[in-house]
Amino acid sequence: MTTTAPHPIQDTATAPLLRAENVRVQFGGLVAVKDISLAVKSGEILGLIGPNGAGKTTLFNALSGFVKPTAGLVTFQGRNITGVEPDRLARLGIARTFQVERPFEDLSVIENVLVACFLHHRGRKAQEHAFEMLEIVGLADRALQPAAELNLARRRRLELAKALALEPKLLFLDEVIAGLNPPAQAEMIGLIRSLADRGIGIVMVEHIMQVIMTLSDHVICMAFGEKISEGTPAHVASDPSVIKAYLGDDDD
Ligand SMILES: Nc1ncnc2c1ncn2[C@@H]1O[C@H](COP(=O)(O)OP(=O)(O)OP(=O)(O)O)[C@@H](O)[C@H]1O
């Protein structure tokens, strides 16, 4: 049996890269994500913010195939991808990083990337592609080093190289900047911007507000599973409901 691409439900030429319509995720009686809608275009960076437990990670997982939405619709280039498994999403052009980096410790840096390159390439072409990914993230000089020896900042870059090796059109970044020192943060910010400039659509969850505000073209703030604010970084940062969500309500 041959596997076919999901059926187009919108005009694939004009549809945004990613669209979510009324996505809901329920764990038993808890509604972790309440009917969230959003859209991401090519080359655009969407930042997801919100206090702890707001539902950011659950939404992120629901959009990237790691949690099945209870209700709602997710489309990628106009095709229905609701509940589609991550490996199938990777073939369509969707990749993600993980909050906790999980390199194959016994493999070299380039071998770690090579594993992902085999999705699209074989043999020498795969090796060349893996080296190109290391050049993009600034790890080419570490190619033969065991991954276990990399410090945190370089592990994050390796994580990014592995995601890029899948040649994504859409990239989900899960807290790739938190925990880095300021120079490493600045380098990662530059790198993420350069990926968007290449046309990759990016959805990022990040706790460092300043990073989200610097990088994002568009920001969504969640609280208690709901979207409470959306717009430019400046709009969301000055929205009283966002300030209240972060500071808590003295009247409660
Ligand atoms: N697998 C699960 N089973 C049950 N409840 C869950 C599960 N995953 C998340 N939750 C709950 O869903 C709610 C939203 O959690 P989520 O991790 O998505 O929030 P978050 O905004 O990413 O928080 P943080 O910033 O602390 O990571 C929380 O109440 C959490 O306890």
Quickly name the level 1 CATH class of the largest domain.
Answer: Alpha Beta
Name the hetero compounds present.
Answer: adenosine-5'-triphosphate
Taken in chain order, the helices and strands follow as EEEHEEHEHHHEHEHEEHH
Question: What's the alpha carbon Rg, rounded to whole Å?
Answer: 18 Å
User: Percent of residues in helical segments?
Assistant: 25-40%
Q: Care to describe what's here?
A:
This protein has about 250 residues and is of the alpha/beta class. It has two domains: about 140 residues, P-loop containing nucleotide triphosphate hydrolases (Rossmann fold), CATH 3.40.50; about 55 residues, no CATH class. A six-stranded mixed β-sheet has the order 6-7-8-3-9-10, sandwiched between helices. Strands 2-1-4-5 form a four-stranded antiparallel β-sheet, covered by helices on one side. Helix 3 packs parallel to helix 5. The longest helix is centred in the last third of the chain and has 16 residues. It is globular. The N and C termini lie far apart (about 60 Å). Bound molecules: adenosine-5'-triphosphate. Adenosine-5'-triphosphate binds next to strand 2 and helix 1.
